[in-house]
Amino acid sequence: MGNEWFETVAVAQRRARKRLPKSVYGALVAGSEKGVTARDNVEAFSELGFAPRVAGLPTYREISTTVMGQEISLPVVISPTGVQAVHPDGELAVARAAANRGTAMGLSSFASKPIEDVVAANPKTFFQMYWVGDRDAMAARMERARKAGAAALIATLDWSFAFGRDWGSPHIPERMTLREMIRMAPEGLSRPRWLFEFAKTGRFSDLTVPNLVAPGEVLPTFFGAYGQWQGSAPPSWDDVAWLREQWGGKFMLKGVTRIDDAKRAVDAGVTAISVSNHGGNNLDGTPATIRLLPDIAGAVGDQVEVPMDGGVRRGSDVAKALALGARAVMIGRAYLWGLGAAGQAGVENVLGLIRGGLDAALLGLGHSSTSQLNPEDLVIPPGFTRRLGG
Ligand SMILES: Cc1cc2nc3c(=O)[nH]c(=O)nc-3n(C[C@H](O)[C@H](O)[C@H](O)COP(=O)(O)O)c2cc1C
Asked: From 233's CA, which of 43, 139, 195, 285 has a CA 20 to 30 Å away?
């Protein structure tokens, strides 16, 4: 046993499931309502086929690119995900893994590690913000991120506080009190290796979110901050333009699914949009992002960078997304499974196998660079795409 290499993300997921307490694993599965969107994100990739070549294949394939001014060694970026008691090093393990593999890291404003430490581990850190509190609070958070050296800002606005999952939501404690520890003891004791990782550090994750306040202030709890977010007035397009202006640097609007929204984002002056449905955690019934990508990339891809995220589990998925117009993809659960299975090494393992899978797809398709990927490389079934808002 131990942290052996795994060969696919599906294997990493099985290991994470075996290794993590049930509620921690459940928090990573996430999804909302009936899980239609979370499922479609993954399954839509399977509907797309390839049209491979047999000879004249390139000896070397170029897969590096840039996203929001950062050179990355593969077109795969770590998507921001909220505080997770998956591993004691949490986001730091992910940041180190991404740095070792030459890529950028999205850091959630609901992360459990301070941005200063994460940027030190990976200077290619994009700080992600939700619209929590008023403009002054937002400006202070941006100032902290700027001072820490964040390379770009990601504004994520696709959240409607959906709750309830047909398969049941995990119990996540407000604080790791003695009572909670006793309540969760049976789960923890059935996962001794996970427990041991935390025991070595001498403390359990306290589920606080340090990046929502100035350094030195009392750390809000995850649920306290969530309540504040729920009570904040939803942002307008003017607020988006204000955010972009206040930040001043590279700026991504994450969560775009409609063409009219993509155009408004361009008008607001963004650097990039991520075609995203929050990994199926927002409005269940939103189509898979890979179905939405071609029309959005067609509408605004010549004006802003268009990464996508949702359902990417292998290198061939990345090839499909790039063939349909994405500049890069962002991954969520894929690296979370890696983190849950084997910490930093597991995240590196995931990035390594996605790189290998993408390279294999390029070889099979006869391309020497990801920039040559195009829709002709794919078998696209009739009616595959969805065009929203335009
Ligand atoms: C457990 C979990 C937590 C997430 N937390 C955040 C977050 O804090 N901020 C954010 O912008 N997106 C968040 N997301 C969405 C991801 O950034 C990304 O859009 C999504 O996971 C992509 O889908 P995939 O998991 O199928 O790769 C979260 C997703 C998951 C699964």
From this structure: 285
